[in-house]
Design goal:
about 210 residues, single chain, 3-stranded antiparallel beta sheet, 6 helices, 8 strands, alpha+beta, Ribosomal Protein L22, Chain A
């Protein structure tokens, strides 16, 4: 059985509209990781989890019982699923971005003045690239945790502030650096505690 057929029609159609097969595969993989995580955590059948997904008004997928909060992201060859207890961690968000040829000025409106100064202080191009993508993934993880995504002006999220988003004053945001993520930046945001979330799974898709 094709995985996409297990999803609610609205979400299956959304994935099918992706032009690139790679993006369709990665979005499906993220949902499969969610289903597998819920199976490990409480024994719910994967097909039941996939079929129960609902879509919130702003487009974010959610499980109707609200027990688990989760977030998806994908970039290039990586799909990411972050899941945590809603009671312990509250809302959460995750973002992954493959490093590419991008300069701060290319997306200047997304950053506030303090963030522009932080990027300008990089000692060389490599450091500037790392700062740019680390900063952006933290910012987008916050936007996902907030539930608005890019519908909220990214410049309103100041990652150089102790409280990046006043509406979520206890937010904890972190980049994850590991050898297997070379060439990528990955960040997650938690509304509540700073402890590790229940599950972070990363899967790489070989385009060949």
């Amino acid at each position: 059985m094709r995985v996409i057929s297990l999803l609610p029609e609205e979400q299956a159609n959304s994935i099918a509209r992706n032009v690139r097969e790679q993006d369709r595969m990665l979005r499906l993989l993220a949902r499969l990781m969610l289903a597998q995580a819920v199976f490990f955590l409480e024994g719910r059948a994967c097909a039941d989890t996939l079929g129960a997904l609902i879509t919130l008004p702003l487009g974010r997928p959610e499980l109707p019982d609200g027990k688990w909060k989760f977030s998806f992201s994908h970039s290039q060859n990586l799909a990411v699923c972050l899941i945590g207890s809603a009671k312990r961690y509250g809302r959460l968000g995750v973002d992954v971005e493959a490093w590419r040829d991008l300069r701060p000025e290319d997306i200047a409106p997304a950053f506030c003045p303090e963030e522009h100064r932080y990027l300008a202080e990089a000692i060389d191009d490599l450091e500037r690239q790392r700062r740019l993508f680390d900063l952006w993934t933290r910012k987008e993880a916050v936007l996902k945790a907030n539930g608005t995504g890019l519908l909220l002006n990214p410049a309103e999220v100041n990652m150089c502030s102790a409280i990046p988003l006043p509406a979520m004053p206890k937010l904890s945001v972190r980049n994850i650096a590991a050898a297997q993520f070379a060439g990528y930046s990955l960040a997650f945001a938690l509304e509540g505690r700073t402890a590790s979330v229940e599950i972070i799974r990363i899967t790489e898709v070989n385009p060949d």
